User: Which sequence fits this backbone?
């Protein structure tokens, strides 16, 4: 459900880009939401696997670790929040 919603968010931003419409807020929203749910989902998947989820032999352990960079690279989550707040006129 979260992954589906994340896809809808980036498709919305992409369709605005293609249509030549403003898309800064939608792109930031899509990046923030998608990276947040990637970490959430990877953490839950790790929990479902129990002890095996923590072992490097299982791909889920790598997915949890690797998902974290999505909240840091190409604009951190804090920066995305600042962008969204600015676009909403909440900060100068
Ligand atoms: C493996 C890896 C791959 C990367 N790949 C890329 C890439 O392909 N392209 C690219 O552009 N960059 C890439 N980066 C760099 C990444 O975008 C930066 O790490 C990121 O911008 C954060 O900068 P920083 O590490 O200097 O942290 P800092 O700027 O020191 O920030 C540290 C923390 O403080 C928060 N913070 C900083 N300023 C504020 C503020 N004013 N208000 C609130 N919170 C704040 C940040 O959100 C962060 O959580 C990569 C980094 C890594 C580790």
Assistant:
């Amino acid at each position: 459900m979260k992954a589906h919603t994340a896809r809808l968010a980036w498709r919305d931003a992409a369709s605005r880009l293609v249509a030549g419409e403003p898309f800064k807020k939608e792109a930031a929203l899509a990046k923030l939401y998608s990276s947040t749910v990637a970490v959430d989902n990877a953490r839950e998947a790790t929990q479902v696997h129990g002890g095996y989820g923590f072992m490097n032999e299982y791909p889920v352990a790598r997915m949890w670790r690797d998902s974290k960079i999505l909240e840091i690279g190409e604009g951190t989550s804090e920066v995305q929040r600042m962008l969204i707040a600015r676009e909403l006129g909440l900060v100068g």
Q: What stands out?
A: The two ends are 34 Å apart (CA to CA). The pocket of flavin-adenine dinucleotide is lined by residues 69, 72-74, 76, 78-79 (CB under 6 Å). Residues 9 and 81 are 15 Å apart (CA to CA). The mean pLDDT is 97.
